[in-house]
Amino acid sequence: MSKKLEAEPSVLSKKDQLLKDFIKGRKVLAASLVDLEEDDLIIKSLDGYSVGDILAHIVEWDSSAIRNAHNFLEGKDVDFSPDEDNDAFNNRAIAKWSNTKGRQMVQMFNRSTLEVTDFIQFLTEEDLFCDRQVRFKDKVVTPAWFLVESDHDLDHARQIEDWKREVGIGGI
User: Fold this and answer.
1) SS3 of 168, please?
2) What rounded mean pLDDT belongs to the chain?
């Protein structure tokens, strides 16, 4: 008689898990944008912000994260100002993209997501998690720390979905 082999659970590398978490967060956030019309994307309905504003903030955050990860890996100084003052960073991001239509912000969000995904895939696991003794508020800073904020993406997705339910967009 042959023994049935038990499948061992697959163990993802830290890099693969990071990428999986990032992609999951972005897919959930992208799914929250379904059923939104142009007017829905630009109306200031989420605590004084529009969906487009949220996307502008994420696009700028991604750009800052990639720049900081590059600088970190090159041994240069990194810019912690987005983390030190989120409101100021968000206001600059929203101002920068204020003349951009909602659908264009969705496209920029999709492009930004691809850029971060490609960047993570390009880096080695050693690069992503290297500890150069840089700290921010007692947290170990690595390129991965800059690049992935999956919970943040999921929070925005919930915020958008809650608003859609409130105003009857999409539908159950």
Assistant:
1) coil
2) 92
